[in-house]
Design goal:
It is a single chain. The protein has 166 residues and is mostly helical. The chain has one domain. The chain is built from seven helices and no strands. α2 packs across α3 and α4 runs antiparallel to α6.
Length: 166
Amino acid sequence: MQVDKIATNVANFINKSEGAQKVLRKVSDSPAMFSAVGAFLVGTTLRPAMTMAITPNKQDGVYSASSSIANSFVELAAGTLMFTPMKKGIDESAKQLYNSAGTIFHENKEILRNYKSAAKRIFRLPSFPITSAIRFAMVAPIAVMLGKLGIAKSKKKEEKRLDKIA
């Protein structure tokens, strides 16, 4: 029953806290941006740290961590620069379709939801090659940066460590 008490306390805090209500209003205004920022934070901190910690070959760990960091930056930039304006345009066109008489969309939320989902996917498809190229171009510089920061062991240090083991 301790869990129920904790859940009730958290719910009461969220309902009564001005700060929590303000954050929730901001999140409800732009859930995609909130999701992108959350994914960015996890992709640039937790995921690379865990990858570096559990990968036996440090060079593979550096590459995987660099790939995660690069992907996080690209996804955040793409979400901010490309997909947020695209979503606003699709939402505006959906409103117009919903209010226009004589179409299958007129006051039909189910079809309108399907239209919005398909439109977002269609507009997102051409961006995949662009975002992938940018991401792959960023991996090597990030790996070098991790090496300069001392996060990644140099190849010589890794070879010396392996020689001591053998």
